[in-house]
Amino acid sequence: MSEFSVQVEITGDVGMLRWQEQRVDSETLEAAVSMAADDAIIAHELRRLQVDLPANDVVARRALQRCGFRLEGRLRSAQRVGNDDLVDVLIYARLAIDPVYGPQGFSGVMDSVLPMKRMIGHAVFRDSRGRVLLTETRYKEDWELPGGIVEAGESPRVGAEREVMEEIGLAVTFGNAALIDWMPPYLGWSDAIEFIFDGGTMTDDVAAGITVTDPRELAAVHWVAPEDLDEHVTELSARRIRLLLSGWTGMTEDGRPL
């Protein structure tokens, strides 16, 4: 086999790891990347070492992951290969402060490359007439239940409580989720897991005082009768709200009981 080498281009305290495209076994590539990375970070006191590579280079991806590099991003259709086929380019990086070896290093790498799901926390509130509280957003036509996207490191329950406070100024404490639904891809969104909590029935004075507290995101709030849900929410949302109103609890997929 011809000699294989890895080069490091350094600008300030950031390095770019590169090598010529050639067939090489995974063990050789891993050893070369490991030595080059350790030498560059330690000898040149780099804070960051980056590698950009085609997404279809499975051997290189595995070698980088075994050397402690974490996936940071994907550039779609960014490189031409072969017969002018377009492939995505993946951005891997290793920081000087990143754990590389042991369980924490392995977990950190895997956390960057394994699939992640969006989580959403919503709540169903009713008034004394049995109407459901919906929010009218400024970015789409269909209305939503109060709530929203759960932030990183936040539980679905806490996320739903926070979103309800931010949107309509209502301090609530939820218990177990009434429905947990898997949502298929929709309108450019990837699939997601949604937790829907039963907020119970508001007294007339509390219901009358509900207003928008986040005017940048919401245009208005509305109390909607169950029979009118289809006029304002998606089919999926209507299915789930009606399930909860019927007393059904559990896990669903696309708003349908398993």
List the helices and strands and how they pair.
Layout: E1 7-11, E2 14-18, H1 26-43, E3 48-54, H2 58-66, E4 70-81, E5 85-95, H3 102-113, E6 118-126, E7 132-137, E8 147-149, H4 156-168, E9 179-183, E10 192-201, H5 204-208, E11 218-224, H6 235-245, E12 250-253, E13 256-257
Parallel strand pairs: 2-3, 6-10, 9-12
Antiparallel strand pairs: 1-2, 3-5, 4-5, 6-8, 7-11, 9-10, 12-13
Brief digest:
With about 260 residues, this protein is of the alpha+beta class. Helices cover about 25% and strands about 35% of the residues. Helix 1 (about 25-45) crosses helix 2 (about 60-65).
Commentary on this structure:
Belongs to the Nudix hydrolase family. This is NUDIX domain-containing protein. Residues 115-249 form the Nudix hydrolase domain. This protein is of the alpha+beta class and 258 residues long. It has 2 domains: 7-113, Gcn5-related N-acetyltransferase (GNAT) (Aminopeptidase), CATH 3.40.630; 118-257, Alpha-Beta Complex (Nucleoside Triphosphate Pyrophosphohydrolase), CATH 3.90.79. It contains 6 helices and 13 strands. It has helices at residues 26-43, 58-66, 102-113, 156-168, 204-208, 235-245; strands at residues 7-11, 14-18, 48-54, 70-81, 85-95, 118-126, 132-137, 147-149, 179-183, 192-201, 218-224, 250-253, 256-257. The strands form 3 sheets. The protein has a 6-stranded mixed β-sheet, sandwiched between helices. Strands 1-2-3-5-4 form a 5-stranded mixed β-sheet. It has a two-stranded antiparallel sheet with strand order 7-11. Strand 4 (70-81) and strand 5 form a beta hairpin. Helix 1 (26-43) crosses helix 2. It is elongated, with a radius of gyration of 25 Å. The mean pLDDT is 94.
